[in-house]
Structures are given as C-alpha cells and as structure tokens.
Amino acid sequence: MIEDKNPQRTSIAQLGEFGLIDHLTKNFEINQPSTLKGIGDDAAVLDFKDKKVVVSTDLLIEGVHFDLAYMPLKHLGYKAVVVNVSDICAMNAKPTQITVSVAVSNRFPLEALDELFAGITHAAREYNVDVIGGDTTSSQKGLIISITAIGEADEEEIVYRNGAKQTDLLVVTGDIGAAYMGLQVLEREKQVFQVNPNSQPDLDAYTYLIERQLKPEARKDVRTLLHALEIKPTSMIDISDGLSSEIMHLCKQSKVGCNLYEDKLPIDPTFINVCEEFNIDSTTVAINGGEDYELLFTIAMEDFEKIKANPNFTIIGHMTQESEGIHLVTRANTKIALKARGWDALTQ
Amino acid sequence: MIEDKNPQRTSIAQLGEFGLIDHLTKNFEINQPSTLKGIGDDAAVLDFKDKKVVVSTDLLIEGVHFDLAYMPLKHLGYKAVVVNVSDICAMNAKPTQITVSVAVSNRFPLEALDELFAGITHAAREYNVDVIGGDTTSSQKGLIISITAIGEADEEEIVYRNGAKQTDLLVVTGDIGAAYMGLQVLEREKQVFQVNPNSQPDLDAYTYLIERQLKPEARKDVRTLLHALEIKPTSMIDISDGLSSEIMHLCKQSKVGCNLYEDKLPIDPTFINVCEEFNIDSTTVAINGGEDYELLFTIAMEDFEKIKANPNFTIIGHMTQESEGIHLVTRANTKIALKARGWDALTQ
To answer: Would the CB atoms of A43 and B93 count as touching at under 8 Å?
Structure first.
C-alpha cells in the first residue's frame, strides 16, 4: 500500500546465485579497522586485538515479524540491521560488523531485493558497521532475513543483565510504547485499504508513531553519553519485547525485585492521544508494547546526581530485595504485580 | 519415510518463546576458553586474545536445501552445523563457536525440535564448538535454520582463496561425488515410497553414499594433518557446490588457470557402481556434484614429496597461467573447458 509499484521486474534466477551475490554486495564498504577480510572467501577474517568480541543474532520472518503490506522493503532492511545493532548496544559495546542472510520466494523480483539491500546498506553506513558475509538463497514462501551482529568492547566496559543491585535505580532511554501504537495505526490503515484500495490515508497525526515502528534507531549514542557522564550501568538490556518483560529479565538474572512508577514512564504526547483514539490504556501499552529498541539499565544510587536532569534518560523506578517481587506502583499509589506480557512471536 | 513417527506431540506455543529457548538450549555446554559468556544475555561475549577471528554464515531452507521426507531431523541438525564448520576449516582456522537460529511452522511439535537440537548438540560436541546464541521463532511455512560459525587462527595460518600460484599443485581431501549420488538414491526411494508406502527399501548397497549425503563431516582434521606435514596451502576452499565450481572460484580469485586430470579424481568404488546403475557419467558427477564438504587446496610444487603418498590427500591437477584457462584433461588426453555447473539453490 505504501510501497512503490516498480514497473521493472527482473527475475532473480537470471543472475544465478553468484551473480546475485556480486550484484547485491557491490555497495558494501569496509570501514572498520578490525575487518581484515570481508565478503568473498569461505569466511570473513577479523582482528579485535585486545578487545572482547560481542555476538548476537536474530531471524526475521515475513508474516511473523513484519508485514510487507505496510513495511517498505527499504525500511525493513534498515530495521533488520537496527534490531541486531541494538543488542550489541545493550552490552555497552560498539557495533563493528554484521553478516546478512536473505531467503526470498520467486515472487520477489531483483528490484525488490535491491530495495531491501539499499536499506541494509544505509543502516550499515549510519551505524558504521561492515557487512562481512552472508548467504542469499530462495525460500518456499516469503522473505526471511537472518542477521548476526558483532561488536567490540574492553572487558571492563561490558554490561550484562545480571549485575543489578537491590538499591540501584532503574533508567530508560527515550520514550516507550510509540512503536506498538504505530503498528496499530498501520494495521488499521491496512484494513481500510483492503475495503477501499483507492482511499488516501492521512497519516500526518501519526508520523512519530509510524516512524518509531517503521524506522526505529538503535541507541548507539548511549554508550558515549554514559561514558561522558562517567556512569557504568550495573545491568542493561534493550527493549525489544516490552518494558515489563525486560524488567523481569533483569530482575531474574540479577536476583532482585523492582518497583516501577507509573507516573515516571516517559511517553510522547502524540502516543497518549492515539491511545485515547484507540481506547487503549496508555500505561498498559507503555509497559507491554515492544519494538522500541530503547535501552533499559540500572545504575548505582550514587550516580543519581550525574543523570537526574539529563534529557536522554528517565529514572522510572528502583530495584528492591528479590523477595519483594516486581511491581508497578500506580498513580493512585497501589502496587500491581508485573507480568511478562511481552510480544511473543511464537504465540501470535 | 525414514523418520520415526513419534507418538507424543507437544505444541510449541504451550512453552512460550522464553520457555522454549530454555528447553532447547539446556544441553549446550561451554568448553572453549574463548567463550566468556554464552546464551542468556543480549549478546555472547568472546575473547580471542591475539588470535584472528573467522566468521561464516549459512541459511538452510526446507524444500530448497533439504527434504524432510528422507532427512531425519537429528541428521539435519548435525549437517547444519557441519556445513558451517566446514567453511571455518576452509580458512585453515579452528572452529570455536556457533549461533543457531531456527524458525518452524506450527506443524512441528516440540518433539521434532528436540530431535533437531539433539543433532545440533551432537555436532557441537563432536566438533568442540560452543553454541553461544541464537533465535527461535515461528515460520509461515516449513523449517528454516540459520547458523553463524566462528573460528580462530593465528594470522599466518589463515588461508584465503586468492593465494594460488601458477605452478602450484591442486589437492583434494577424501573422495568426491558420493553425496550427490546419495541424494539420487534417496530421491528414487522417496518416489517408490510415494507409489507404495508399504515398500521396505533395501539400502545396504548404498550405505556409504547415503551417509555422505545425510551425515557429512567437516574436515577439521586437515588443519592438524597439514600442520604435521609442515605444509601451508597457498589457497583453500571447501567443496559445497561441486569441484568444478570451487576450482573456478580459486582460479578467478588467484588469477591463475588450471588443468584437472580425470584419471586422478578420487572416487569411491560404490560411487562408480551406483553411477552405472543410474546410467550417469561418474566424472560428470564427481566434478559437478556438491555437498561433499571436502577441502580443495593448492600447495607449492616443493611440497609434493611431503604429500604424495598420503592417503588423506589426492593431487588432482596443477595450476597454470591465467591465459591458459581452466580445463579437464580426460583419460583420452583431450582438454575440455570446465564450466561452473555447481549446485545453485536459486535456480532449482
């Protein structure tokens, strides 16, 4: 519906596997000093010297993780990189390389793959990661993207999920919930379009939410920001499955409890408006909606002064003894036990 | 057809995404000193000290790369690891870690995934690689496996595709063609089974060929063998797409030509018998059949004496000036230009 109808359609089979790989990878640049050899051999060769290496991987499946009815292929390529880079950022590491594997059914012409790879190339430049390998093949159905992201960090910089202490403060970057509501808007427009393909959607009021869904950014800047503030988080995770679910991961692995304050949740004004329009409780979406790709972390109480007025960060709660459990403290000052209701790709 | 019909069927959705990942990954062990942190955080953390890091990735799609009608899931899991480990071996590096991502449609019960992961676990133990991460999700259709393999090597050990010199000898490990004929036997049995599901196939005569197709091994031993012989190949590649196609890769990247000798091709006696039974020219299969996962490499002429009588290696040709082209020298001493007719997943 948003996607351009490209008049040119070149069959992928015409190029052959090696021709296709040459065609798709010709725009990839090597910029990282740690990349000794990129695409073109049995494997890439990397040199991290005295740095530690951080590795994460994700699989994105059409119809499960994305819907091409409203996700332009260029945005999808960009987002696929962002999702993986975000995991590296969540270790407080610097993203350096990615591998990209793609499988497509024969309904995709070469021009569609070009769009996808244009998005991947754009994201690789934006985040300064080298594309060092991958695989391109056919699928029985739909589009499948598998990305592995690699990063580097000094050992003492790396932040795990299991380091939160019971008196730590809980901090989140940016705002939350918008990506989920962006998806609701797009789903609604898709239904409108199915009923009337000639309708011209006016999505101006939803620009921010849709952008959060279609073109999220990984918080690569947070590492630098925290470094400048001389803060090292005690634990960290990225918010892909929803705040609630990620808090439970941090608590479980760190063996602590948590009080999360409803009135502290950083949400965008347009997010509240659209929640009202959809008649959905904004707090429920803010804590359960996923795909924001913000970072959630804990810091020692002593670091409060360093972070309190910083517009990049919001203190949303504090950790407690494990036995106290994990609760949302509402505006009415009642405590509600948090449940992980994160976005679960397997039960959709 | 070969697969056991497991009477128990547990729906994957019952476990939820995190429950499923916990269940599937509980048997993975960490044995490599370079693995600081495996599964359980946003990313794994590795430490290669002064070694270089080698990375390769592959995507395996049901109906394109494998057929579950004759590929038992346990074998498939094993083979998926082998295919990736083989790429690391082809760099003359030591495989150390893998990430494993799997997408399945809801036709797969938990017991099927358990079989697949049993094969993955078995291969990880056999090749001493740590499973350090991955992703498990649902697919719209069929089974999808994405594996990234990581290895380590000293810089001076690493062998690329582009180092062959015009006077080098061309060497292959093991024997070739058998995996392709194993596939032909299995395809034939599948057709027999479709006509008569009660037929009991007698596959004794084809054991070796079927094993080469269903349970190939990566030549992790070659690195050690060559080290003991004090030979460093000048170029190397693994034979996944067929000898002919891989020779052309080495020649193209090294800017040399090649004479390959038909009478030197290492083939198994049962392979010849089955080629005759299928009325297929054995040389054509030996040079074009893929999936042998043997290693193909070039060595300096001075190393001839070190390798000539070694049962692990066969000298099958020699490199030439680039302008001389790439030829098969037949038993009748005629030269035929080689064409890359390698197995191409995109034109199937």
So the answer is: yes
Contacts 24+ apart (CB under 8 A), A276-283: A278/A181, A278/A184, A280/A181, A280/A184, A282/A177, A283/A328, A283/A330
Q: Is A175 annotated as a binding residue?
A: no
- State pLDDT tens for residues B255-307: 999 999 999 999 999 999 999 999 999 999 999 999 999 999 999 999 999 99
Cα separation of A77 and A100, whole Å?
10
Tell me if B64 and A139 make a contact (CB, 8 A cut-off). yes
pLDDT of residue A345: 38
Q: Name residue B45's beta-bridge partners.
A: A54, B37
Distance of CA A47 to the CA centre of its chain: 27
Terminal Cα-to-Cα distance of chain A (whole angstroms): 23
Starting at the edge strand found earlier in the chain, the sheet holding A144-153 runs A130-138, A94-104, A144-153, A52-61, B44-46, B35-37
Name the residue of chain A whose CA is nearest to B240's CA. A42
Mean pLDDT score of chain B, rounded to an integer? 92
Which residues in chain B have their CB less than 8 angstroms from residue A13's CB?
Answer: 346-347
| CA distance linking residue A288 with residue A279, whole number of Å | 16
Walk me through the domains of chain B, giving residue ranges and CATH numbers.
12-157 (3.30.1330.10), 169-337 (3.90.650.10)
The answer to whether B259 and B317 are in contact (CB under 8 A) is: yes
Q: Which two tokens stand for residue B109?
A: 């019960």
Q: Which residues of A touch B132 (CB under 8 A)?
A: 55
Structure tokens belonging to residue B142: 């069929």
Q: Where are the beta strands (DSSP E) in B114-201?
A: 130-138, 144-153, 169-173
Question: Looking at residues A99-116, what average pLDDT do you find?
Answer: 93
- A259: pLDDT strictly greater than 50: yes
For A237: left if phi > 0, alpha if psi spans -120 to 50, otherwise beta; the answer is beta
Is residue A55 within 8 Å of A150, Cβ to Cβ?
yes
Starting at the edge strand that comes first in sequence, how are the strands of the sheet with B335-337 ordered? B235-238, B295-299, B169-173, B313-320, B257-261, B326-329, B335-337
State both tokens at B187: 């395809």
Q: What is the distance, to the nearest Å, from the Cα of residue A48 to the centroid of all Cα atoms in its chain?
A: 25
Pairing verdict, β A94-104 and A130-138: parallel
Q: Is A202 assigned a ligand-binding role in the annotation?
A: no
Of B215, B155, B218, B213, the closest CA to residue B189 belongs to B213
CA distances to A65, B213, B267 from B173, in Å: 43, 17, 11
Residue A237 and residue A258: Cα distance in Å, rounded? 15
Q: Name the DSSP letter for residue A22.
A: H
Q: What is the DSSP code (8-state) at residue A333?
A: S
The amino acid that residue B265 corresponds to is L
Question: What's the CA gap between B44 and A56, in Å, rounded?
Answer: 6
Chains A and B form CB pairs within 8 A to the count of 222
pLDDT one-digit tens code per residue, A2-43: 444 555 788 877 777 778 888 888 889 899 999 999 999 999
DSSP A264: G
Token pair, residue B29, equals 């062990």
